[in-house]
Amino acid sequence: MKELFFGMGIGHSILLFAFVIATGLFLGKFKIKGITIGSTWILFVGIIVSHFGLRVNPLILQFVKDFGLILFVFSIGLQVGPGFFHSFKKDGLTMNMLAVSLVLLAVLMTYVIHLFTGERLSTMVGVMSGAVTNTPGLGAAQQAFSDAGIASGMVPSTIAAGSSDMASAYAVAYPIGVLGVILLLVFFKALFKVDLKKESAEMDNDGNDGNQAEAICCQVENPAVFGKSLHTVGKSAGSQFVVSRLCRSGVVEVPGPDTVLMEGDIVLVVTAQSSEDIVTVLFGKKSDIDMSKWESFDGAVISRRLIITKNSLNGKKLRELNIRGNFGVNVTRVTRAGVDLVARPSLFMQVGDSIKVVGPEQSINKLAEFVGNRTSALNRPNLIPIFFGIVCGIIFGSIPLKFPDIPQPVKLGIAGGPLVISILIGYFGPRWKITTYTTLSANIMIREIGISLFLAAVGIGAGETFIESLLNGGFYWILYGAMITLIPILIIGIVARYVFHLNFYKICGLISGGTTNPPVLSFAQSAYGTDYASVNYATVYPLTMFMRVLVAQLLVLIAF
Predict the structure, then answer these.
(1) Per-residue pLDDT tens for 240-282?
(2) Are residues 399 and 311 located together in one domain of the fold?
(3) 267 phi and psi, to 5 degrees?
(4) What is the pLDDT averaged over residues 207-214?
(5) Is pLDDT at 299 greater than 60 in this prediction?
(6) What are the DSSP E strand ranges found in 369-414?
(7) Residues 16 and 139 in one domain
(8) What are the Cα distances from residue 551, in Å, to 156, 405, 419?
(9) Does the pLDDT of residue 211 top 70, yes or no?
(10) Within this chain, do residues 167 and 222 fall inside the same structural domain, yes or no?
(11) What is the pLDDT of residues 533-559, one digit of tens each?
(12) So what's the pLDDT on residue 274?
């Protein structure tokens, strides 16, 4: 029992991690004036238990910290991957410009403090890494310090002391880097007088880029389409619509590509909102027929939603399925991640898509068997893409990127690499015939386990020297870290809101991603009840991670 509670074995390590995480999560349930720091309590519980002598084998500690961070960022990448590039096109340039500015302001603050206080620049790099919670930056800076020290003839003991100072400064500044940013988010919410419902509605509308599907009724009055097949008309219009049903002389039918349009026909068209006016002009004019009457025209025609659950259909274009030709059924729209899309022939299908179909009931039943339509099949996680993606991400993050006049190569590291790969898999997976679908609950489970392990490992690792560092001048490091954390974020947050008029959730994602701060993202998601910040976190995180690692190494090299 003594070995279990006070030893350094596997059982003790698991016991300690479980205790720290469970206690931290329990404390996170309590609110002070409606505010809680959530799972960040795990970090502080880890510091406390480590300070009182409970330790974990350093190799186990490093593994748990790195693996937890990988799980966290990979789950975020899979979640935001499908909409990542769309988000980048809309305002990604602005977000990344602000994130880079945040990095450069932190560097400027670090260098100015070094000049005014005389604190060693290498130590200040440790303070900066902790203030922006960037562990990969600290690791890169320590490696650069060691390599540069060896090249300059520095004795090993001096190199070890300098590296230790950086680690201690990092540990002291890290809590401020977490708690300070969280307090700033709370401050911004009050300063900007944020109405969360209004901000959420703006994000809903922001995601509406005109590609969402909408059903409209049109009456055929354009002589240019009289006597032409739907295939011909659709081809001339660039396949911007799908005709769900056609009413002629009071009889409703499910039209096919060869159906010929006649004057006076009424068609139910599904098209993108941005194409509504074009489609209306193409057919003639809008009809004032009540949408609900389509169901009552002909009882033989029904509308249902089916879910694609067969892996063999993943990555195939809608036209390849030939649903109309094989089943006599029209696919009018596809719902993916809660968004209705026009069922264009070129649309890549993926497992988890919900398709709305119109046609005879018997034909729809046969189509249901073809696509799977078994929700229970979606409850089984697809682990192969996750672990294979982690393999690729670690390899990618380990690739050295060399720059002129910089002696040490720069790497994205084990956090940046898996994030980039998971985003690519989430976006391109269906095109590569990779099944990436995971239920929301499974994604959240992976994410929460990852961030809990990461915070517990950081806390246990920092607690050993935390008090000692404070007593040996570390109080100044707290002040320096607070300045590096708060001043740049305060400036960028105000500029983002009042100059670029960014939504509050975007600012949360910008700040948590710009400081490479998973605990802050976790706080924003739990405190404000939405995952909107995740998309913007992932938008700025890769470039920010690269910049943080780069500038940390550059500052160390300047010190020599």
Answers:
(1) 678 878 888 878 777 878 889 998 898 888 777 777 888 888 8
(2) no
(3) -120, 140
(4) 57
(5) no
(6) none
(7) yes
(8) 24, 14, 20
(9) no
(10) no
(11) 777 787 787 778 778 877 887 888 777
(12) 72
Can you give the three-state secondary structure of 403-458, one letter per residue? CCCCCCCECCHHHHHHHHHHHHHHHHCCCCCCCCCCCHHHHHHHHHHHHHHHHHHH
Residue 281, token pair as written in the block: 């002009």
Per-residue pLDDT band at 105 (split at 50, 70, 90): very high
Separation between Cα atoms, residue 155 and residue 176, nearest integer Å: 33
- HSE of 134 in the Cβ direction (CA atoms, 13 Å)? 38
- What mean pLDDT is predicted for residues 326-345? 74
In the chain, pLDDT over 90 holds for what percent of residues? 12
* DSSP SS3 for 265: coil
Among 378, 393, 408, which residue terminates a domain? 378
Q: Which residue's structure tokens are 């007593």?
A: 471
Do residues 367 and 247 both lie within one domain?
yes
**Domain range holding 296?**
213-378
Q: Are 166 and 37 within one domain? A: yes
Query: CB–CB of 429/436 below 8 Å?
Result: yes
Alpha carbons 105 and 198: distance in angstroms, whole number: 31
Query: CA-based angle 467:173:106, to the nearest 5?
Result: 165
Contact between 247 and 266 under an 8 Å Cβ cutoff? The reply is yes
For residues 146 and 6, membership in a common domain is answered with yes
- The CATH number assigned to the domain holding 392 equals 1.20.1530
The CATH number that applies at residue 246 is: 3.30.70.1450
Name residues whose C-beta falls within 8 Å of residue 111's C-beta, 6 or more positions apart in sequence. Answer: 121, 124, 555
Q: How confident is the model at residue 492 (pLDDT cuts 50, 70, 90)?
A: very high
Rounded Cα–Cα distance for residues 198 and 505 (Å): 11
What is the domain count for the chain?
Answer: 2
Please give the C-alpha separations between residue 240 and each of 86, 234, 270, 332, 340, in angstroms, as whole numbers.
19, 7, 9, 12, 14
